[in-house]
Amino acid sequence: MATGKSIPFSAFWLRSSVVSVLISLISDTWVIDPL
């Protein structure tokens, strides 16, 4: 049971980390070269 809960939690944490990085990169791109 612990493993079943641990994997989705890790996946969610990893996904939210990636989203954070993507937003940061997009913001930097807009600052350097606005649309």
Automatic annotation (TrEMBL):
Keywords (A to Z) from UniProt: Membrane, Transmembrane, Transmembrane helix
Spans traversing the lipid bilayer: 12-32
Domain of life: Eukaryota
The name this protein goes by in its record: (wild Malaysian banana) hypothetical protein
Organism (species): Musa acuminata subsp. malaccensis
